[in-house]
Amino acid sequence: MSAGPLERAEALFQKHGGMLRTSRALTLGVHPRTLYALRDNGRLVEVARGLYRLADAPALSTPDLVQVATLVSKAVICLISALAFHRVGTQLPRAVYIALPRTARHPRLPHPAVRVFRFSGPPLTEGIEFHKVDGVELRVYSAAKTIADCFKYRHKIGLDVALEALRDAWRRRRVTMDDLWRYAAICRVKNVMRPYLESLA
To answer: How many CB atoms lie within 10 A of CB 50?
Structure first.
């Protein structure tokens, strides 16, 4: 006996990590009536406006990052959130820090809170890593790129944050000197970072 529309829709959600935006589900062939039927009978949960998740899916390990990555397609996890993702330093972000192109629209999310930084050119496109988390692909700046970004935005997040991240990542061999110099050049903070990098060497 062939599966019905509800079962086919559930299988699609399972194939995509248990979570889909409404627009993506419709593109994949899920009828709106099917989507709302799954929601109304408790098999889908609306975790944010336009974002649905299977009710019996395992708990998310990083729900805020996954939610932002799903809802804001151009976002790259940056600065404090990227440090926390890489487990560098001791900072705990109070919002999800994301980099967006200067021309991208500001995201309007009721939850979680986001803090947007506008990047362009190589500082936007260089150093992006792709990580599959909870079935969703996250775009996160590498540890070395994130440290250079922290120095660039030191007046907004604090020089102490950048220095702690640099020393912790270097001590734990999470970065190389070549990468640090490379991203310092890309982010135009070579002169700022020079004394701290030379002290490590």
So the answer is: 14
